Structure formats: structure tokens, C-alpha cells
Amino acid sequence: MRGRMPPLPALQCQRLDGIAAQGLSGPVSLICVEPGKRKFRFYKLFIAPSLFGEWMVVRQWGRIDGPGRVRSDRCENAGAALLASQKLMREKLQRGYTMRWPT
Length: 103
Fold this sequence. Notes:
By secondary structure, the protein is an alpha+beta fold.
């Protein structure tokens, strides 16, 4: 079928320090709020395929009331992208960020 993307590979949901890593199912949202330090930050992370067959780890971060910055890092395959996103998520959790569950 011309013009259609192949289906995404199915990945197992892995555990990361007691928190289920979202993998390819959707973005992970983290927040860090410390009013005493005037610290109101967000961090979003997700994995997406590129148009060229690579996988991208896309992250957005910044102050909660602002647009923030966006960065995309290329990975060779979906497994490498998942490992990279888990590493980034672990680092943010160690720095005081907490999961923001969808409402």
C-alpha cells in the first residue's frame, strides 16, 4: 500500500523504579513545584518514529506557564529510544520531579 506507514512495533511495558514506563503508548509528563524556591517546572517526554525510519526521543521542558523548549534526539531503533527515554525519566525523578497523571 503506497503512502501508508507500516504498523509500529509492539513493545513490552517495562518497569522503572516502581513506575511503569509509558513506552510508545503516550507522552510522560513530569512536574517539579517548589513555591519557596519559585520553582514551577514541567518536563514532557515521548518516543516517535521519524520519516526516515529512525526513532526520536522528543522532550519539552520549561516553566509551567510558558511554552518551554523542545529537543529531539535520534536513536537507531525503538529499543534504544525506549532506553534513552527511561534514562532521562530516571534522572528527572532523582532531581525532584514527580509524575503528572492525565486528568
